Structure formats: structure tokens, C-alpha cells
User: What shape does this take?
Amino acid sequence: MSILDIVLAILKYGVSSVVLVILGMLIALHYQEKIQKLLVILWKVVRLVWKKAEKKIISNDIEGRINDFAKSLKQEMTNFEPVGVQIQWVEEGESPEQFFRDNRLIIRMREHQNQNKNFVYASMVFISKAVLTKAKKYISKTQKESIDLHIGRKLFEREKPQVVDQFFEDFFSPKMESAKVAELVEKHGIVDKAGLFFPVLVQELTFLGEKVFWRRRDKRIIEEVAQFIDFLADYSNREIGEERLRQNFEGCYCRCGIVIIAKALKREEGKIDRYTAYISKLIEKRLDNIYIIGPASQDNIRFIDRIATGIQQKEPLERYAERRYKARIKVRGEAKEVQSYLLLLRNPNAIRYFDKEYQTKFIDPPLAE
Assistant: This one.
């Protein structure tokens, strides 16, 4: 600073202000190293506070998006009760882990600079640990992975393209290298396009998970779940009006029937006896769940309601779930999107605990020990 600069500063700001500035500069020069060290400490504190705040912002964003998805799953899955999610960041040397506490899934994970990566990882942990938890005790690893991948893809496609790309890179593509997983994922897609993935496949797996067996026969359960997925895939891929395919699945563990109400002529006649008699026969076969499906027109929904009321007067069935959904059907080889309606009638007396006598008679005869 020159003499001229000082004179001009005095004229502009006054003597006292300029003197204080000069003294401050002299002190700063004298204690320069100490001031620099102090500034470094202050900067570290600011960075630490900001880092914690930044992590909290990121964890809140992930928790909110997963919890929103869990709420949407509850709309798809009648008896699904979503748990809360809490993200905790682990430091270097700490191990990532997941566990349930106070009806929340705690996900301890390392933070990645790529926020899409953080969200995808946490979401897949949630789907793996909190969706179909009971059923996953019985099904194979391949079946679990394929279901998780399909549900994950639905979640990330609802988000944004960048998240989908991250999911495909980290989870989907590596798992699809397994031919068995790839085949199952393709079948889930077929079933989902027909609108039956959540209301039928996932619902039946939920019921399976609630059952308790005197003795688990894991291989048999896995084989039957595979057959049930094939049944639904074939049914979903059928041509409208095709009657050669079976409409009932009469396994040892999964037992359900699908009743189609779609013919306008039958509806216009207004007669429900044919349908109620048919459903009664399904109940005699020990089928626990009857899925009544048809177009979502008001006339057809009213007709389905009459059928349900009529059968409930004869059989101990309860209206367990009903929903409208988009479905793709085949009409003369062409895919057509329609609005469909589904009503699930369930036997409230369906057996949940399979004791030795029942299992020996209906499930395990004769099985060598």
C-alpha cells in the first residue's frame, strides 16, 4: 500500500478506520502462521458439520422414496404391511449390515459419491428383506432373485432413467447371466403384463408364506412354485377365448382357481347359477382361493358382484380383495391393453398349519424317511 493509497483512504473513510485496518494487517502478518492454522481448524469444523448435514439430506431422500414405494406395494398386495426404513452410514472399518428394530428395517451402508448407486442399493436391500419375507423361507434362491429383480425394475422405472441404468448395471445385468434367473424374470414380465403378477402370483406366495408345515419339504415346494409360475405365464399368454388351458391350479401348497367373466351374452342373460355351481365344485376340490376376473365395465363388475353374493350364500367364502388394473390381452395375435377387474374370494377356514396327519394324507404320501 503506497502513501498515496493511505492518504486517499483517510480522505474517504476517516483516520480511525484506516488505522484499524493497517494495525489488523500488521497483526495478521506477524501471526500469519497461527491464523492459517486457526482457519484450517475452522474449515475442518465447517466441512464436518456440512458433511453430516449432507449425509442426512441424502439418507432422508432415500428413506422417503423407499417408503413411498412401500405404500404403493400395499395397494398392490392386500395383506402387505410395510415397515419403515432407516439409513445409517458406516465409516471405514465398519461392516454394512441390515436388521429389523421397532418395526423398521435398519440399513447400515457405506455412502457412495454416486447418489443413484446409494438409492439402488438401499432399495434392493429393502425388497430382499421386507417383501415376501415369509414366502422366501420356502422358495429357491433363483426364485427369490427373479422376484426381487422384477419388483426392483418396477420401482426404478417409476423413478428416472438414470436410476434404471444404475440398477441394470449393478444388479439386473449381472443376475441375468444366470439362465434360470433370466427365464423366470421373463415369465414374471408375461404375468405382469396380463395384470396378474401382484394380485395372483404375489398373493399366492404370501398365502404360502403364512403356512406352517409339520415337516418342510423344500424341494417339493420349490418345484410346485415353479409349476405355478408356468401356469400363470401360460394363462397370461393365452389368446382371448382359448379354453384349452386349465384355469385351476391344484397343487399341494398352492390351490386356486381363476374364473373368467367376460362373455356379454351370459351377462345379458343375467343367470349366475352356472357360475356359482362351478365355483362350488372348486370349493369341493379344496381350492382355497377363487380369482374372478373380467372387464372393468360397470355392467360386468355388477354381474361379478352378483355372482360373488350368490356363492357366498352357499359357501363359506369372504371377499378378500378387489381391484381394477391395466392388462394386456391377445386378440387374434395382437396385444391389446384393457381395463380389468379382479375379485378374490377366499376360504376363511383355509388350513394354515399342516399337522402330521394332514400332511401325510394330502402332501407327502408316501415319502421315504
About this structure: Residues 3-30 form one domain. The two ends are 99 Å apart (CA to CA). The longest strand covers residues 318-331.
